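Example 3.2
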Amino acid sequence: MPTRPAPVRPLDAPTAAELTTAAAELLAEHGTATSPGLLAALPEACARLGDEVRHALRPVDTADGLFVLRGLHPDDTTLGATPGHWSTAGDAGALWDTVLLLVSALMGTPIAWEGQQDGRFVHNIVPSPGHESEQTGASSSVLLTPHTEDAFHPGRAHLLLLCCMRNHDGVATTAASVRLAELAPADVELLKRPVAPILPDDAYEQARRFPGRPAPVPTLFGTPDGPTLRFDPAYTPLDEADPAWGDAYRRLEKELARVSVAVSLRPGDVLVVDNDVVVHGRVPFRARYDGTDRWLKRASVRVPGRRTRPEAERAEHGYGQAAREAYAR
């Protein structure tokens, strides 16, 4: 797998301090990063931030479809142990939840899913005992297959943000942009057809029990800025597709693997991924469950007015799942 560096947008020390100070003030006022009052206060807090922060958080502007925001520095000694499961994390790393919410609000509107991690707007991504071989963020011993985040749902995020709290072992996040892939025109046309559905992943227990019929969706979609994709091979029943379409899908999968890069996040790094352009995953690693394992914070962002998806998605049932926005625009 290539190891060329991902684009980095640095925050200098004064700008990073401005962002963390704003987060600390919000947290002190509202007590917890899950407070409705804190969520409602995000736009006003963002309006007080300077141009340097705004410039660093301008839209993704290269074919890579991602960048790393660098310059924030969590203190490993005061973070506490890596939680053993998202449900036990509580307010661990609450300052960084708030930082990530500010970053998210500068880029769009943070969203949360009713059926995942108790509806929190910031998720804790940690390896968990008993989940080692699943295709979810709680796994460790298997390759997390490159995928579009929440690909099963028409209301999925436009941007995915991953903030690194701890990564002593240098575990790499993988990423691949469809705009760097070389695809035969015939394959592109095939994959624009809605042939196979994308099923909810194992993190959405309610959605997986939804009684409605799964609807086929296109894998590729053209826009004036270039191709976009909706891709999750681990949850796509490829055996239901016709052979020609299935072969094209597998060629896309191989091409994404060819252009994939490995991004080993440092503590404080925020990986920003265009979820319409880039698929992401993670290499396998051995979890120790001793409080020092890899720990990421995850946020999902919608960008108002963005038109990067087929209109037909509006008619999808979303397997009964609903996303809510952090505040009214």
